[in-house]
Specification:
heterodimer; A: mainly alpha; about 0% strand; B: mainly alpha
Chain lengths: ~210, ~110
């Protein structure tokens, strides 16, 4: 509930810890920044939907190899899937920490999430390098190579952007510019990170696990 | 640590949102997600369930997707407007994938090379 001051102005409400909460700057009963992030994620759904559809449509239509079953290393990719899944857990723990006013703990969890994202990216870099150098699969080799590299490459780009975002939050917090009252900033970054995770959940199943 | 309210939206919202889960619930969801991933890998390696492998993998994957969106992204607890916006994008994406798969299934696949 908002507080009316003696001058008649409406001051930001105060939570149980006595910290002023952000005003949502909107006539809607919701925060416009969070709504914008959800709208962006909805559009990104369509973007990745198209990339996944293209991969599935051209699946098994390459007229020359290498083919998916010849190059995929499912146990290796499973480790990457677990890493990204675990990073989603550390991300929500970072959010819970800032919502409880534990800024140092939030920085630790955010840094852990960023490191896990880097581990995932390193794994993807190794996988791509192996495909190109050992298996001869390149972007222009066949339909499988084109659709696979574009799909997983765009996902990797999303992860890289997420890592930079998380690290910027850590720097902001270390400089004393990110407090409990701005926990929504962390929540919005978390929404993006979890979206990257759910896209990988789909890619892991549709591209790697479902047989040709 | 117990669950706590989402401080931003509940303060201003005309519709009061439910409390977000706490760290304990997040960890439980994380364990469930890891267990489902292990199940996916077990299903992938089993040869005796090959006829039903694709639907099993899709169901397990959809469950993981639902859990992350509902609990980690708080869509289950937040305002219904967020749910509507995201589900709209998801529905469009799903429709496009289904339509394209149907359309391209009408064309025969190329013969093996050589």
């Amino acid at each position: 509930m908002a507080i009316v001051t003696e001058e008649g102005a409406t001051a930001p409400p105060i939570d149980v810890q006595g910290i002023a909460l952000e005003h949502p700057h909107t006539s809607l009963p919701i925060d416009s920044r969070k709504l914008l992030m959800w709208a962006f994620l909805a559009s990104d759904c369509m973007f990745f939907g198209m990339l996944i559809a293209t991969y599935l449509v051209y699946k098994n239509r390459s007229i020359e190899g290498p083919y998916p079953q010849e190059v995929f290393d499912v146990p290796y990719t499973s480790v990457s899937a677990f890493v990204l899944l675990f990073s989603s857990l550390t991300m929500v723990l970072a959010l819970a920490a800032i919502q409880h006013g534990q800024e140092r703990r939030m920085r630790i969890w955010l840094t852990t999430t960023a490191i896990l994202g880097c581990v995932f990216l390193g794994g993807q870099f190794y996988e791509f390098t192996t495909f190109v150098t050992k298996d001869g699969l390149t972007l222009s080799k066949n339909l499988f190579g084109s659709t696979f590299f574009v799909l997983t490459g765009f996902h990797g780009t999303h992860v890289a952007i997420g890592v930079f975002w998380l690290l910027s939050l850590v720097v902001h917090s270390a400089r004393g510019r990110l407090h409990q009252a701005q926990s929504l900033t962390v929540e919005i970054a978390g929404l993006y990170w979890h979206f990257v995770d759910i896209v990988w959940i789909l890619i892991f199943t549709l591209v790697y696990l479902i047989p040709s | 640590v117990s669950a706590h309210p989402a401080p931003h939206d509940t303060e201003y919202g005309t519709e009061v949102e439910h409390a977000h889960p706490g760290p304990r619930e997040y960890i439980i969801i994380g364990i469930v997600l890891a267990a489902i991933t292990v199940l996916e890998l077990v299903a992938y390696t089993r040869t005796d369930i090959k006829p039903i492998l694709v639907p099993v993998l899709i169901i397990l994957s959809a469950t993981k997707f639902f859990l992350v969106v509902s609990f980690y992204m708080h869509l289950r607890f937040d305002d219904v407007i967020y749910r509507f916006v995201f589900c709209f994008g998801l529905a469009v994406a799903g429709s496009i994938i289904t339509a394209l798969l149907f359309l391209f299934s009408q064309y025969p696949k190329p013969p093996p090379f050589g």
